[in-house]
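Chapter review: from sequence to fold.
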Amino acid sequence: MTTTLGRDQAQERGVTGGRPAPPGRKIRSFGGRLPVRVLLLVLLVIEIYPFAWLFLGSLKSQSDHLTRSTLSLPTHWMWGNYRTAWVTGQLGTYIRNSLLVTLPSLVVIVVLGVAAGFALQVMRWRLRTGVMLVFLAGIMVPAQMILLPLFTVYYRTGLSGHLWPLPITYTATGLPLTVFMMATYFRAVPFTLFEAATLDGASILRCFWSIGLPLMRNAILTVGLIQFFFIWNDLLIALTFTNSTNLRTIQVGLLNFTGMFGSVQYGPLFAAICVNVFGIFLIYLFLNQRVMRGLASGAVKG
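The token string follows.
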């Protein structure tokens, strides 16, 4: 038995009888892994190339963009493009407006969505199935169908000249999906935990704050990040309800960025896109592990 185990371990390490494995075996092993390695290399290049191209484009001068190849390096490294985008292109104003719209909307969506998911999945009451179907129906309504009625309502109520229409619309469109996802996450939590807490004298609010919320941390982060990306990257709703340059969010600002200079200034435009793209990428890179754990926990069938 010991001899057999030793032989198996030696074969796993690539040696037989204390001698290196034959060269043919190593070649076959390398050849078997070669297609996978080539595929991974191709995927890596596909992922990295757009970031490199975008970053190099943000450092090129206008003449480099107009007269040289898109794959060429900058003749002069124009770091001032970032300052031009921030000051002249009003990128700072667009980012501020996006934060003023995104953060309040995100807080309201998460708080109401978590509470509604708890009420629909954990609590037992007569109409909860019908209410859940109403939220599911809200997911099926395209945003394009409600833009014109909402624009009419906002105009008649005097809200069209402010940022208020954006967080109201984002909250209304983001709640159905958030409630559905949070109800799914709560379904994965054993109901016996809440029953035991109730038998010990805990109220429904105590069950929510002391049991439900701590177990939903990864799920809340996942749902919040999904909604953050949706709100931050939205163009259609923001373009419909912003009628002033000072009210534009970052996506609408980037769409109209070329008009700031009378002609397309590619260097500052690429710089503004870099600030937006790399900022969002760093947020996801920092939080992606917790997002994956949250998605996995939502996939567990309770």
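Two observations follow directly from the output. The CA atoms of residues 109 and 175 lie 6 Å apart. The chain has two domains: 2-58, 80-299.
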